[in-house]
Amino acid sequence: MTIQYDERGLVTAVVQDFETRDVLMVAWMNAEAVRLTRETGQAWFWSRSRRELWHKGATSGHVLRVREIRADCDGDTLLLLVDPAGPACHTGARSCFFNVIG
After folding, report:
1. What is the pLDDT of residues 18-70, one digit of tens each?
2. pLDDT, position 1
3. Domains of the chain
4. pTM to 2 decimal places
5. CA dist list (Å): 52 to 32, 44, 46, 62, 94
6. How far apart (Å, rounded) are the C-alpha atoms in residues 67 and 90?
7. Cα separation of 81 and 69, whole Å?
8. Residue-by-residue DSSP string for 17-86
9. 22: which residues sit within 8 A by CB, 6+ positions away?
10. Distance between CA 68 and CA 47 in Å, rounded?
11. Beta strand 77-84 with 64-71: parallel, antiparallel or unpaired?
12. Three-state DSSP state, 99
């Protein structure tokens, strides 16, 4: 499967807990982040606001150990199945999806 990056060279990455299947976060990856993730076994992303690569958990210690990377049928969204070493959200919450709106 070929990854289909958008015009900015990015692909959406959905991060899911391997054991519980809870969705933990959504982020963006470029080709370098995908390469580093595959090589290191830990999640790397592209920060659109800072315009730089970031290693998830580099400062907090809450790394995401990647068990598997899957692509959707079109190759334009990735699913990272991970073992989280702590909260995934920068707020300290386990998942970024804690705001109920309806």
Report:
1. 999 999 999 999 999 999 999 999 999 999 999 999 999 999 999 999 999 99
2. 78
3. 11-84 (3.10.20.810)
4. 0.94
5. 10, 11, 6, 19, 24
6. 22
7. 6
8. ETTT--EEEEEEE-HHHHHHHHHHSB-EEEETTTTEEEETTTTTS--EEEEEEEE-TTSSEEEEEEEESS
9. 16, 94, 95
10. 22
11. antiparallel
12. coil
CA dihedral 100, 16, 19, 73 (to 10 degrees): 120
CA distance 60 to 49: 19
d(CA 31, CA 23): 22
Nearest-CA neighbor of 43 among 94, 90, 88?
A: 88
Tokens of 100: 């109920």
Task: Go through the chain and tell me how many residues it has.
Answer: 102
How far apart CA 43 and CA 45 sit, in angstroms, is 7
